[in-house]
Write a sequence for this structure.
């Protein structure tokens, strides 16, 4: 594989040299008198059409044309004076930046910005960057890790993410104004498969890491708002790689538009890099459609549909994990027998009726339903040996055994859930105000059956040891049904005004939520103020505050208790209260140009004070709540983000975050670093996170591009299972992952390859070679605890995936 990669890069270099001898590449920026990028300027060589292009939102343009002794370059836009510039190219690449003068001086107050100003806590980002971003999960969520503030991840197998100390359940996702859900039983990234959001169908992404508007859900961490495409004509794409395939088709007419997306993912090749060897058969399938039909100029009908199936089959065989320090190395060997077979099916449909009474008033009625059927079954035995590893003349020699035993894990769990709702919402523009409102009625029906147990035999004794009876190490049986009704309403106003020195934006409103299970009415006031002063340097500032609740769902209610026989069972705590937090977010953006290119530097500081917290334990992606409002917590931190074009025409993100997040559980004390402490790190507390997405290309031919994605984050807190005093007593090693990709684009009318008749309908082909985990670092996902012969427990790390290569080809038509 390494030879193939070297040969591929060598061919790129040779082809690039041959192409560069025949063509001239011209690139640069079009700016106004204030040095801000001008979008939509037509740039071309006089007398040619095929090489014409237009400047993007940052004012950047690039074109390729045949090289001559002299060329006339033309820059034109209706609101600016046309620029005609004669050039005499001596090289194969030229950088030209021009300043456009307004065609009419009275238009000087028209503000064309290089980067969109952020006037709320919702930041927007482009979906186009996800296609070539190297990531294992392959979803939109991978873009959030590098493009959004306060977002972190420490498991590349999962599409889930943490935001400012919160867990996965505290993030809400909307698609076309409709909240979507994730399966409930998934406990590992290997089972997870595809996320709901289809990146091929995505047009716009908006994301907030906190302090969001009242119209968004009762969650405490973040909101992601996705808008799917409405194609202007016929379009489509097909992608095929070693980790799966996808296809997209879109079409529209005067009254009807339709898009379809299908995705298939198989991660067996990737899972082969794990320490646990065996027969992996993960197969994940997802189909989505979004249809719109204009009944009349003022009435529109829309439908969003989804079917998803995650099937995970696994027959483990062996595992061997080396761990410990250089001076005290140890080896963990396991021989398995058994199987795992999981199946998760979800169905989702939403029908929307949008009514545009006039330019100022819009109303919508949305009816949606979500159904999930989840089955998890496994029966696995393992015989293990932990031994010392000694160094002898540079060779590793297995030493004395430290732990010998076997275990047997069994589960047969099923869960089905239905969530159906109907929503009426509206927007009304009046003067400088935009008033928005909505009311939702929702029913929830859940059936959950649990039957799982674990037996451990260590050194010939069953744990926990009792000379008279045989004990299971862990056992849980339960059968529960939950039927509930939820009512949600919100109202908010967005008010914008300006004077001679500043532009103001204020958003304020109230959100309410009533749940029939705990009979609790939640009132969530939220306020946000943003200002953009008309200074010589471009700054904007914002502040958001409010009371945010985490409205309980089924998982938070599950409390593990003992029955009359002493066995574990699940009891639903119907008196549980919503988790509550007071949040304050202060942010600023500084827009500037460096090296003639646009940049944006963002700073956000935040504080979250929370009570009525439902404590939980985290293993892999499985969250197990205590079922009690047994804690209070705080989270404080600061995020920095630099966004811009370090390389002309190639966007780059740099993120760095510092955070302190701790909780206090029922006035208990815990042992951390040998000291008793009441406040301990929360399960998702990462004190620092650095992430980067860097893009580059060959200067003489930008069709050859490089994409580098880096994540460096603090390790998660953890402790021994079943031991309250050692909860969060340790911290896993830092998570470091570097993924890199190289791509070559072939475009119609520009590359000879595309002149073939069978490619006549293809606009673009992209070949992409990726290397995941470039440095082959053993990142720790979680720990498996083993009892030694002397009675002590040992934490054996569960490592994530190693280095692997991927090849992908994408065609647009």
């Amino acid at each position: 594989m390494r030879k193939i990669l070297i040969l591929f890069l060598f061919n790129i270099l040779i082809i690039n040299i041959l192409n560069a001898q025949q063509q001239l590449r011209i690139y640069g920026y079009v700016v106004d008198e204030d040095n801000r990028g001008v979008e939509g300027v037509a740039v071309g060589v006089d007398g040619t059409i095929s090489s014409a292009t237009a400047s993007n939102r940052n004012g950047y343009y690039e074109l390729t044309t045949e090289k001559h002794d002299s060329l006339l370059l033309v820059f034109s836009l209706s609101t600016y004076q046309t620029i005609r510039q004669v050039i005499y190219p001596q090289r194969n690449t030229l950088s030209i930046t021009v300043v456009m003068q307004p065609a009419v001086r009275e238009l000087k107050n028209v503000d064309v910005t290089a980067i969109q100003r952020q006037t709320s806590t919702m930041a927007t980002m482009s979906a186009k960057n996800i296609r070539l971003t190297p990531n294992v999960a392959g979803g939109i969520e991978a873009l959030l890790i590098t493009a959004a503030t306060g977002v972190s991840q420490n498991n590349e197998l999962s599409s889930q993410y943490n935001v400012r100390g919160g867990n996965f359940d505290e993030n809400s996702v909307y698609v076309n104004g409709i909240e979507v859900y994730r399966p409930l039983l998934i406990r590992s990234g290997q089972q997870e498969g595809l996320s709901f959001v289809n990146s091929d169908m995505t047009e716009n992404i908006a994301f907030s890491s906190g302090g969001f508007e009242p119209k968004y859900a009762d969650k405490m961490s973040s909101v992601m708002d996705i808008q799917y495409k409405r194609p202007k004509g016929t379009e489509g794409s097909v992608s095929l790689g070693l980790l799966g395939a996808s296809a997209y088709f879109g079409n529209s007419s005067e009254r009807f538009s339709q898009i379809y997306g299908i995705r298939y993912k198989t991660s067996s090749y990737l899972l082969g890099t794990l320490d646990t060897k065996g027969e992996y058969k993960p197969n994940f399938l997802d189909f989505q459609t979004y249809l719109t039909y204009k009944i009349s100029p003022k009435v529109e009908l829309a439908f969003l549909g989804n079917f998803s199936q995650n099937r995970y089959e696994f027959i483990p065989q062996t595992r061997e994990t080396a761990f410990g320090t250089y001076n005290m190395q140890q080896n963990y060997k396991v021989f398995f027998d058994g199987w795992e077979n999981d199946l998760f099916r979800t169905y989702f449909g939403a029908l929307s009726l949008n009514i545009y009474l006039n330019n100022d008033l819009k109303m919508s009625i949305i009816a949606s339903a979500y159904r999930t059927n989840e089955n998890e079954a496994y029966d696995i035995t393992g015989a293990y040996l932990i031994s010392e590893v000694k160094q002898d003349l540079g060779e590793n020699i297995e030493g004395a055994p430290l732990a010998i035993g076997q275990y047997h894990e069994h589960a047969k769990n099923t869960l089905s859930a239905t969530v159906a709702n109907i929503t009426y919402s509206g927007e009304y523009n009046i003067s400088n105000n935009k008033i928005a409102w909505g009311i939702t009625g929702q029913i929830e029906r859940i059936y959950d059956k649990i039957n799982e147990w674990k037996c451990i035999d260590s050194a010939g004794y069953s744990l926990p040891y009792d000379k008279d009876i045989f004990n299971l190490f862990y056992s849980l049986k339960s059968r529960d049904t939950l039927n509930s009704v939820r009512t949600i309403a919100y109202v908010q106003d967005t008010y914008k005004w300006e004077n001679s020195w500043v532009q103001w934006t204020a958003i304020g409103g109230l959100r309410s939520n009533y749940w029939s299970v705990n009979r609790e009415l939640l009132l969530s006031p939220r306020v946000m103020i943003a200002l953009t002063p008309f200074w010589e340097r471009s700054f904007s500032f914002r502040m958001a505050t409010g009371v945010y609740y985490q409205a309980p769902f089924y998982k938070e209610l599950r409390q593990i208790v003992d029955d009359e026989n002493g066995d574990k069972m699940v009891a639903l705590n119907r008196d549980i209260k919503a988790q509550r937090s007071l949040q304050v977010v202060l942010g600023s953006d500084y827009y500037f140009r460096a090296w003639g290119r646009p940049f944006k530097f963002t700073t956000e500081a935040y504080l979250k004070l929370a009570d009525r917290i439902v404590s939980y334990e985290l293993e892999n992606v499985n969250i197990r709540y205590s079922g009690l409002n047994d804690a209070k917590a705080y989270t404080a931190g600061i995020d920095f983000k630099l966004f811009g074009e370090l390389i002309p025409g190639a966007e780059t993100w740099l993120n760095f975050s510092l955070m302190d997040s701790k909780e206090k559980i029922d006035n208990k004390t815990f042992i951390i670093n040998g000291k008793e402490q009441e406040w301990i790190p929360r399960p998702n507390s990462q004190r620092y996170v650095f992430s980067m997405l860097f893009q580059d290309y060959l200067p003489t031919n930008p069709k050859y591009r490089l994409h580098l994605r880096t994540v460096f984050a603090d390790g998660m807190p953890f402790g021994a299972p079943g031991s309250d005093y050692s909860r969060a007593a340790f911290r896993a090693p830092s998570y470091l992952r570097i993924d890199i990709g190289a791509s070559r684009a072939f475009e119609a009318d520009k590359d000879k390859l595309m002149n073939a008749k069978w490619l006549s309908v293809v606009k673009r082909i992209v070949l992409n070679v990726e290397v995941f985990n470039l440095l082959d670092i053993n990142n720790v996902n979680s720990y498996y605890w083993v009892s030694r012969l002397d009675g002590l427990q040992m934490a054996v790390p569960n490592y994530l995936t190693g280095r692997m290569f991927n090849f992908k080809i994408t065609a647009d038509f």
User: Anything to note?
Assistant: Residues 1-10, 12-21, 105-114 have pLDDT under 50 and may be disordered. The chain is about 5% helix and 65% strand.
